[in-house]
Amino acid sequence: MPTIDILLPGFAIDTDQGYPAFCGVFLVRGPDAAGRPRTLLVDAAHVGRRPFLWDALAAHGLTADDIDTVVLTHAHWDHVQNIDLFPHATLVLHPDERRYAHTPHANDWATPSWTGLLLEQLPVREVSDGEEIIPGVSVIALPGHSPGSIGVVVETEAGRATITGDALHFAYVARTRRNPLVFWDSDAAARSIDRVLAVSDLIYPGHDRPFRLTANGGIDYLESFALTLTGLRPDTQGLAFADGSARPLWVMPGVEEQRALYAKNADDIERRISRVPRVVGPARQGAEPGSG
Amino acid sequence: MPTIDILLPGFAIDTDQGYPAFCGVFLVRGPDAAGRPRTLLVDAAHVGRRPFLWDALAAHGLTADDIDTVVLTHAHWDHVQNIDLFPHATLVLHPDERRYAHTPHANDWATPSWTGLLLEQLPVREVSDGEEIIPGVSVIALPGHSPGSIGVVVETEAGRATITGDALHFAYVARTRRNPLVFWDSDAAARSIDRVLAVSDLIYPGHDRPFRLTANGGIDYLESFALTLTGLRPDTQGLAFADGSARPLWVMPGVEEQRALYAKNADDIERRISRVPRVVGPARQGAEPGSG
Q1: A194 to chain B, minimum CA–CA distance in Å?
Q2: Vertex A79, ends A145 and A264: CA angle to 5°?
């Protein structure tokens, strides 16, 4: 059966000066239909985690060249930015997300205007709900946070595990059943949460530790928390701490315009994709400098 | 005389799971040679600070459309990513930095391969050492951290202030005189620090609060520290704190290859620049969706 390893853990930490945005990055391994061993990543994190990603791969005896597939739960900045590290990988994502990323709404601060330029640096395979990636690893469409958010359902020895991306950022969302950060559609986001809860034995959220829901709806984390902060101390003057599970629900201003604008840009997407120059070349890790 | 305001403060905070990388973003205002009022940004921060940047502009009675110039101290991910927010701005940077950003070294984790695609989204004005941007605001070349790092020297009423970018990340570097994070040239980086210290009355570092050096080499901060962390508490199990000023000196593996590779790519830069599609259009703030 396929296996899931946490390459980089997700953290439910914010600040009032900026988002550290440490999303989970997951290693999924298993044989494909022809029996060949496959090494997949789910999500890639942002540039500020780049050296940590290299180290985590090395700790698993891997280099970036060993990754044959990068599944993108969605194209937000904190999940997508390191995809260029994997020149031997195919990028797997939902066509709605791909198309949206080329012309995001101006109020969508998590999807900069240049996201499409980054996305097209790898060969892309578009996938939809229910599609199998390798045996025991399939796509679940979880729109709402973004138009083409997807999760990855993995049939593991411990049960059916769903890697959710930001369809379910934090474990507490399994209790509140509302997505606190919506850029596309709140109701769709709530249905996506329900769907994850209905199908999953274990949940790997976007920005929290993996967990099971207990019989009475409690959260049973499968990993422990570990983080070292450098450059401040608990008693640092001016430093304050606030409770995380009290996050207000936020829906992007202008969200009602999203569907119409998105439909309007449909004809254009092939042209946009074809215009993107490739700057990622093969064999770029280690001493081998940039080419392309 | 021109004025400096801190739009977003810089923070000297790291973690063992990723870099929050909150660099300072500065508002510099003053009349140009023709007497017209000008509104400049120095650096733009990364996407995780995007909504905070909007709020900070609004707190100064500004919108992104009011920014006519964005000066980039260097093209690292945490300084460059929000430049596409400023469709009415000219991007000002050093030609060495512009060229490097299109073909960064594979070990340069702070400059992803796609940086050039982002950089060319605004009209670019290349500047060199000593060049005036507006009266009382000039460029100082500070290579070492990166090939084309620059600072901005501002003649303010409080004295000559230098906005240093990562030529001087943290106030303690004014004492150690060594850059702890070098991607290009350690010796050049040390000379750049010395130069900043020689010319400046006040220093606005890349990732710390502005300060003056006292007569006996002490650090006199001009602003106080303020930060709220959400999602953890001082007594959170698994949370640890470490001292910031004990950062080891790090020089990028492969740094000795940098100059030769960079020279090799000189002929190519015009072609690379011309291939970049523009995805940033005018009037993109607020309800106006993406075009281009």
Answers
A1: 24
A2: 50
ipTM (interface predicted TM): 0.94
Residue A22's CB is within 10 A of a number of other CB atoms, namely 26
- Can you say whether residue A35 is alpha, beta or left, with left for phi > 0 and alpha for psi between -120 and 50 degrees? left
3-state secondary structure B120-147: CCCCEEECCCCCEEECCEEEEECCCCCC
Q: Cβ separation of B13 and A52 shorter than 8 Å?
A: no
Residues of B in contact with A8 (CB under 8 A): 17-18
**Interchain CB distance below 8 Å, B228 and A240:** yes
Residues of chain B neighbouring A48 (CB-CB closer than 8 A):
18-21, 46, 77-78
Partner B contacted by A272 (CB < 8 A): yes
Percentage of chain B beyond pLDDT 70 is 96
User: Which residues neighbour B252 within 8 Å (Cβ) at sequence distance 6 or greater?
Assistant: B105, B107, B108, B182, B183, B184, B258
Q: Does A117 touch chain B (CB under 8 A)?
A: yes
Residue-wise pLDDT for A7-28, tens only, equals 999 999 999 999 999 999 999 9
Low-confidence winner among A213-227, B32-46, B84-98, B236-250 (lowest mean pLDDT):
B236-250
pTM: 0.95
The 10s digit of each residue's pLDDT in A71-96 is: 999 999 999 999 999 999 999 999 99
Report yes or no: A50 at the B interface, CB cutoff 8 Å. Answer: yes
DSSP A147: T
Give the model confidence (pLDDT) of A100-118 as tens digits: 999 999 999 999 999 999 9
Q: How far apart (Å, rounded) are the C-alpha atoms in residues A101 and A113?
A: 8
Which residues contact residue B261 at a Cβ distance below 8 angstroms, ignoring those fewer than 6 apart? A289, A290, B103, B105
**CA nearest to B57, candidates B49, A255, B92:** B49
| pLDDT for position B290 | 34
SS3 A138: strand
Q: Which residue of B lies nearest to A122 if distances are taken between CA atoms?
A: B114
The pLDDT tens digits for B199-227 are 999 999 999 999 999 988 899 999 999 99
